[in-house]
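Lab notebook: predicted structure, single chain.

Context: the supervisor wants predicted structures on file for every construct in the current expression panel, including those that have not yet been purified. This is the next one on the list. No modifications to the sequence; it matches the entry in the shared construct table.
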Amino acid sequence: MPAPVRTGLAGYGLGGRYFHAPLLASAEDCEFLGVVTTSPQRRRQVSEDLDRPAFGSLQDLARAGAEAVAISTPAATHTALTEQALRLGLAVACDKPFALDANAARKTVLLAEQLRLPLTVYQNRRWDSDFLTLRELLASGSLGALTRFESRFERFKPEPGPPAAGGGTLLDFGSHLADQALVLAGPVIAVYAEMHHRGGPGGLDDDVFVALTHGGGVRSHLWGSWRQGAPGPRLRAAGTSGTFIIGDVDGQEAQLRNGASPASAGQRWGVEPPQRWGHLRRGEADEPVPSARGAWDRFYPAFAAAIRGTQPVPVDPWDAVATAAVLDAARTSAGTAQVQTPAPAS
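Prediction complete. Output recorded below exactly as produced.
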């Protein structure tokens, strides 16, 4: 068996503390070395939560023998830290949004290719129970050919609204929503968007609608909001033979926030109870669909395998460039009220 990949974590805010650290600690293919943070508060939390040290810099982490790092810091720091880590010889898994725009994303991917280092993006929502179930239905032919994909991340927290660390709703929620749409339906040829900004045009966007037209004819409608008091269904996917609809968001985030992890939950990890299953509908016919097990726990073992050269990275970083190009087009569309064509990824 290959030796576990010596991996560190940069950042110990909400994402680092509750999402990445438990998943890294649960991954047998990773040796979780510790956390890079300069915040005294975060360093105390690392000491209280983990039997691992806090490092003052990526250089210190590299000197401790790290081979890889997961970056979970504020969105505006992702590009600089990812490129710094790559130049230190570290493989990188960067949280979303991978970059603030497609040009920055493209530059970082090209750097990783030049340095011949594994680079991937933490698109954990590809391993959501609802999304995996939908992909199984499409693969089996139960839906027929996909015609329309509707996807939502909607919350009701108008005050204080979206956290600044996420870069706004389009970048934060939109990175997941657009990535899933691209995985399902392929490249996008047209983007239309509407956007509300908290406190006026200069504030963070807190409510976003994006309509995508894919080259194959599928249309995706995506909603991200912190102002929605009556959230719609998490997913609704219409095909030529039926429609799959599921109301509840995947439960893995709640498990992690409540202190569980893949290691502690074991076979219970990612399992959705029957009352949270989606339904396959064909007119009056309504069939409950058992949910696939949510599998965020697959990401870091897959990343480790890529570093050891036994499989590709779990998320191709060029996918993140394509997603960023769609979000760039959405931002322009929202400002002009006109349909936009995304720039090519490469």
